[in-house]
Amino acid sequence: MRWDDEQNQTFLNVDRARGLRQTMTDAERKLWYHLRNRQLHGHKFRRQHEIDQYIVDFVCTDAMLVLELDGGQHAAQQGYDERRTRHLQAREYRVLRFWNNDVLANIEGVLEVILDTLVKPAPHPNPLPAGERESCAPESDE
After folding, report:
1. What structural domains and CATH numbers belong to the chain?
2. pLDDT of residue 72
């Protein structure tokens, strides 16, 4: 792809993300109300944020956590969603998916799952071999 083609694609994605922010679903608006301005224990979230060729619903880049809200249309695009999730996970993002009606009917439960995930450390990208300790602290002679 030529440089000017890449620039055009970037502008298209920025415009698309801007449009998505202006036409949020009821579920996205409800969740955003609780995530914006660092309201969820100080974690900063962005909405309709571009990661590579994808635009994710919400992301906390510090915690490498992506939140996706799915409506009825997602049942028909399960393969696409799975490829997208694998791509994001390969970039070391954790991905949580919620159904729109879960957000609308049980926002407290959704927020609890998000907060639980935020406080858990992300899994180590390269698990240690069996028998190796995770602590870097020196062993005592006691």
Report:
1. 24-119 (3.40.960.10)
2. 74
Place of tokens 């571009």: 50
Q: Give the pLDDT mean for 41-45.
A: 96
Instruction: Inform me whether the pLDDT recorded for 68 exceeds 60.
Output: yes
Pairing of strands 65-70, 46-51: unpaired
* Degrees, nearest 5: CA angle 135-94-78: 150
DSSP 52: T
The rounded distance, in Å, linking the Cα atoms of 76 and 2 is 33
| Residue 77 per-residue DSSP state | G
Of 14-28, 34-48, 75-89, highest mean pLDDT: 34-48
Report how far residue 48's alpha carbon sits from residue 51's, in angstroms, rounded to the nearest whole number. 10
Helices (H) and strands (E) counted in the chain, each on its own, are: 5, 4
Copy the structure tokens of residue 125. 């990208």
89/92 Cα distance (integer angstroms): 5
Place 22 in a pLDDT band, splitting at 50, 70 and 90. low
Measured between alpha carbons, how far is 84 from 57 in angstroms, rounded to an integer?
12
